[in-house]
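Archive maintenance. Older records in this collection stored only the sequence; we are now back-filling the structure field for every entry so that each record is complete. The fields below show one back-filled record exactly as it appears after the update. Entries are processed alphabetically, and Beta-amylase is next in the queue.

ARCHIVE ENTRY
Title: Beta-amylase
Organism field: Lactuca saligna
Length field: 667
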Amino acid sequence: MATEMQRFGTSEEEDEEMGLDVKEEGENDEDDDEKNSTPPTMVGVDGGVMTSSRSNNRFQHQQQFQDQMTPQGGGRRCRPIEEKERTKLRERQRRAITAKILAGLRRHGNYNLRVRADINDVIAALAREAGWVVLPDGTTFPSRSQGVRPAAGVSTSSTSLPLQQNQAPSLRGISSACPIEMDNEACQMKGLFVPSSAYDVSSSGRSQSSHMLGVEVDGQDDPLIGVSVDTVAGRQVVDMPSKLQERDFAGTPYVPVYVLLPLGAVNMKCEVVDPDGLLNQLRVLKSMNVDGVMVDCWWGIVEAHVPQEYNWKGYKRLFQMVRELKLKLQVVMSFHECGGNVGDDVCIPLPHWVAEIGRSNPDIFFTDRSGRRNPECLSLGIDKERVLRGRTASEVYFDYMRSFRVEFDEFFVDGVISMIEIGLGPCGELRYPSNPVKHGWRYPGVGEFQCYDRYMLKSLTKAAETRGHSFWGRGPENAGSYNSRPHETGFFCNAGDYDGYYGRFFLNWYSQLLINHADRLLSLAKFAFEGTFITAKLSGIHWWYKTSSHAAELTAGFYNPSNRDGYAPIMEVLKKHGVALNFTLAHMNINMDMDMDSSEALEDPDALAWQVMNAAWDSCIAMTNGRHYSAFTYLRLGQLLMDPHNIMEFERFVKRMHGEAVLEIHA
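Back-filled structure field:
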């Protein structure tokens, strides 16, 4: 029992110190009759206790059910000791989680919560920070002093990435005696995202919104929320408008907007594809006051044939076109293969000389348990192995970055290049290629560990011997295959081997190798691009997030089960090198079975996004995507964007991001 208490981060003594004095289920069976006549209790956030009454019908139903379960002799059915212990353990786990939530809000959120705060106080604090007024009786409505016009039924704080706006339910039962005010600095610190507009709201949506609003305010028209308020029979009734108004972003902070260029803007001969057409598209972007463009500089194009012979010709011409239009540049150091992933419309392999080495030594590539190689990028195992014509992988990456910095020195000096993103793995993201479509993976499979090349196995063997368990120098044998579900495996299922001694050792080694790779490469990038804004890309693997193991994250290299924060160590590395985070949720719609409900994957992209962004905020890391923008990049330039209707909408979007007033368009 003591071991289990340590696992959940609490103990009985700690429970008493925190004031969590709620009686545990099944602790005293002889008090059952007394409990049946007493209103049940609910645990508050910091040990506060709330009572809630239950209807007579529900009580009678429970009593009848208990009578049915009672033997003829009148004695009550006694629960097994094991069940009582499990109940106690679950209760203590809930208490520990509650205490940690409250401690985190106090420490990182500057929430002024009382010592015995309950859940109502927490919800009220969150609502006030989002710009809502919360009255002592729980009545909640948008603040007038807020410099925005929130659309009815649309939350001013989204729990998803900007392109995934959700309607928020009404906040009810909220009590607070604190004065309400809008703190701009607090909102900037929290990075609150406000949906840009309420386009195409259906009649059913409007009906739902009017029901969800549920406000009682002064008996006059409110110009901020765009509703009319009348008094009927002593109560104020809200009259919703027929069309929701668009948000006014005038005066909001300026957020630079960039557009990602097509993957094949420069071909395998390092020549600009259709320079005239591209120039015309760039001029259109310039006319809309777009700040700049983002472009991938592919390793497979620049250093294609001979080691350390770099051909930057096509990129130089492209950069000159951008500079002549007075646009900025964000450049990605792309050390991975293009083709076969979501959104890839061209094929750009790794350099030919690397492929030649791979044919004689395939262990330079990531390898799964079945021995299948993935030439999408180089294995982390050769970061310090001189297997690339006398150079290590780290040295190859650094030489490439240094050549770029020297070749385009004038663009750095003139400030044309505003940001460099360092590719850290497949798709340029910091992760293992655990879900390759080319090997048969389909959403929402858990994927496979990619640690079976001889260099990574050598590292694993060494780590196991250092730990004193040489037989641990192997990968998991019961982790299933690419398309397995967690419950189908012995490793990822509830109480599976992932949380055993070997599992914790293996996952720590596997994830630490990824973190060490980021640390090593970002250190070199900081040296090569001294004084330049540097970012790293992190992909959100959100399926199976609601399971205890977070299986898909584990195979991708994020040691983030339900009892451990796997993203904080990554943020510490970014903070160490002064690198910003580019976070994006993985979109797998084209790979999923259309007949399958996404809820079957137990995914939670919103919760994952919040976890990652909170980890970034805790480390004071800037984000180039997410709710707290330092810049916004649109994916991507093409004929779809150039459609007249789309380009008009995009121009309005750019103005909003720049904090400019936008005239409403009425149908």
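Update note: The radius of gyration is 28 Å. The first strand starts at residue 41 and ends at 43.
Entry marked complete.
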